[in-house]
Amino acid sequence: MLVIFLTVVLDLVGFGLVIPLLTFYAESFSASPQQVTALMTVYSLAQFVAAPLWGQASDRWGRRPLLLASILMTAVMLAAFASATSLWMLFLFRGLHGIMTANIAIAQACMADLTTMETRARGMGLIGAGFGIGFTIGPWLGGELAVFGLAVPIWVAAGLSLLNFILGVFFLPETRVPGARHTHRPIDPLALGRALRHPRVGASIVLTFVFIFAFAAMESTFTLFAEHAHGLRPEQIGRLFGIVGVVGALIQGGLIHRLVKRYGEAALLPPAFLTMAVGLTALPLTPLGPPLYAEFALIASGQGVVSPALQSLISRGVSADEQGEILGSNQSMGALARAAGPLLGGWCFQHVSHGATFYVAGALLAVAAAGSVVAGRRAAAPRGA
Q: Average per-residue pLDDT in the chain?
């Protein structure tokens, strides 16, 4: 588990390094606000296509070789992104980078291989903690390094991905049992539709979409909002996103296991969704300074519960021979949400108001809180019910 955890941490540090400077980097190529958010969309569209295929391929050929190959190509695409000389090149290499980083579906399948039904939430919480640490160190470090040049953090991210690959070669194990029945299933690009129709976890996968859609709309628009409304710089924005990572890591690294053990995943989802809804709605009205840091901590506390709880429900609701496919499809729905969310955010920012995105995202999460009652009941029902 520790090796998988470290793999996710390094992967997400590399990803998080780029977050606070992406807007400024794209604007240096004369990108408009909608083009800035579209750059985030193309990354996530690529993940939407690739995630279920990575998951299915790892079911068939094993986790280790595909995870190593995708990590190495992540380093290559980041280097190409840092070397770009025109806006179209940013879109090309950002999309290819998205294909490679859809490998999180493989890491989740690895964790499912290594855990039992009883420890699944803890294992997925460990993956979530890797996300949290990555989003703590990555955006903060990216913002601080941006003072030396906007391309510098991207080169550092490429170097971290290369380090991740080297460590993986020596320490990453193969977790899939050789010769298992599902390793011979052909790769099926229509797996996402099958996952959405799944009687136990289909509704939870839809909730994954709504949750990530709302958060991605906020995440992609907040940098524009902070720059234009408050005049914040990359290093200041990186510190704010670092708060999300710190709180998320604390919750997902240990607290989520205790909460799930006491209340169960299904019971945790409605209040966590409502917490995020309140936080996002209040975000554009919050003044700079400690209140804004507290607001980000509130949002992160809800996110830190929703993410591993949904992943655990989905993983527990399917059989062992479906883990790679269903978790990959769930990752794909998340990628589709990260593609659509920034488009809405950019449009609202440019054509409605600077704060409109946050109000829409908050309303969606309030609806998701109600939907999570039904989805949690279905996913937590005894198998075959």
A: 81
What sign does the CA torsion over 90, 93, 99, 101 have?
A: negative
pLDDT for 186 equals 44
What integer pLDDT is reported at residue 278 of this predicted model?
Answer: 93
Which class for 79: exposed (0-12), middle (13-18), buried (19 or more C-beta within 10 A)? middle
One DSSP character per residue, 209-238 reads HHHHHHHHHHHHHHHHHHHHHH---HHHHH
Q: Which residue has the tokens 């554009």?
A: 284
Average pLDDT for 299-328: 78
Which structural domains are found in the chain, ordered by start? Answer: 2-173+191-380 (1.20.1250.20)
CA distance 10 to 7: 5
- Tell me how far apart the alpha carbons of residues 229 and 235 are, in angstroms, rounded to a whole number: 16
Task: Report which DSSP code applies to 320.
Answer: G
What's this model's pTM, rounded to 2 decimal places? Answer: 0.68
252 vs 145 pLDDT, higher one: 145
Contact 304, 371 (CB under 8 A): no
